[in-house]
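Researcher: I'd like a structural prediction for the single chain below. Treat it as a standalone chain; there are no partners to consider.
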Amino acid sequence: MIGQEAEKTRELDSELTQKGYKCVIADNIKDIDEALAEQPIDLALVDMDTLSVTWTESVWERLREIKPRKPLPVIAIIPREMVEEVNANSGIDDFIVKPPDPGELSARVQCNLRRTNNTNGKDIIRCDDLMIDLAKYEVYLNGRILSLTFTEYELLKFLATNRGMVFSRDALLNEVWGYDYYGGDRTVDVHVRRLRSKIENSNHSFIETVRNIGYRFTGDGS
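Model: Treating it as a single chain, here is the predicted structure.
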């Protein structure tokens, strides 16, 4: 649990503990990092109303760094007037309006944990420092989200889900662009080049060119 008003936060701690959850209260970024180092964290409960703007930004930045390495549901406790500000890009997986009802809060925690545990990583493709979140259509490198076009994402997803298999340019056109695409196969080369510029550098090489044939995803990151 993350918040700065000790009394309210500890009340939530007591309520969740009674429901059988083990809670760690973090009042600053150092506390978050120490909690992560000491034990696995399965869910973050953030009290938005108690956080200053600076504190809020630092908290979300830290949580965004954590999520690519480990699926971490984030539930926000927010004032009613903030409901309209919640959106898919905020980093929040779920929220509850203040003052939180203990029963509802416990149910939301349980549902989010169940949803995360049920995936068992099947919606995540990891290759070295590259992570593809298939459920959220997001790609991360070294914990930072990448800005890919829809076609770049679909190309990467197809190659990564068929790791090690070689695909000709025509096959990639059919699979990624569709059978009704009338552009030339050089389109594949252009998109692969752009994709490589975003996911590869001197330390990372994920897509291999197979001479006179096409491409394959090696996924070794070397």
